[in-house]
């Protein structure tokens, strides 16, 4: 049992001596940059500034690309709306032309039918032959 106590004491001594050595600051600070008040070195601040600039450049490029895509989409919508309006106008004009032609043919047919009933046989429809 004494042996176990001695081993534990030796292990504890080793652990505490290692922790103490880890907390010691180097005495020669001429080769390392002194940290600022916030604990960062000039190199760290320089790297942070570089990374921030890179991120800002990427964000600006993304914003420019997005603005171009929005503009292209708006132009496409405007073009599609113009085409739709033109095609709708052409359809409505054709529909009106057909309706007018149909109304004209119906009025002619009604006039011919009335004249035929009144006795003008020149305006009667040709007789149909029954199928055999």
Output the structural class: mainly alpha
Helix content: over 70%
Compute the CA-based radius of gyration. 49 Å
| Shape designation | rod-shaped
SS field, number of helical segments: 2
Chain-averaged pLDDT: 84
Structural features, described:
This protein is mainly alpha-helical. The protein is built from 2 helices and no strands. It has helices at 2-23, 42-118. The longest helix is centred in the middle third of the chain and has 77 residues, at 42-118. It is rod-shaped. Residues 19-23 have low confidence and may be disordered.
Would you summarize the structure shown here?
The chain has 2 helices and no strands. It is mainly alpha-helical and 132 residues long.
Write the layout of secondary structure elements.
Blueprint: H1 2-23, H2 42-118
Provide the descriptors you would attach to this structure in a database record.
132 residues; 2 helices; 0% strand
């Amino acid at each position: 049992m004494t042996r176990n106590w001695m081993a534990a004491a030796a292990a504890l001594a080793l652990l505490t001596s290692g922790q103490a050595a880890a907390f010691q600051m180097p005495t020669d600070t001429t080769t390392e940059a002194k940290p600022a008040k916030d604990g960062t070195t000039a190199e760290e601040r320089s790297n942070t500034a570089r990374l921030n600039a890179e991120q800002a450049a990427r964000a600006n490029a993304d914003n420019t690309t997005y603005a171009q895509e929005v503009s292209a989409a708006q132009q496409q919508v405007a073009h599609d709306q113009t085409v739709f309006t033109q095609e709708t106008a052409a359809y409505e004009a054709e529909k009106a032309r057909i309706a007018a032609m149909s109304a004209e043919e119906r009025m002619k047919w009604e006039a011919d039918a009335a004249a035929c009933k009144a006795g003008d046989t020149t305006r009667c429809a040709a007789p149909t032959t029954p199928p055999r």
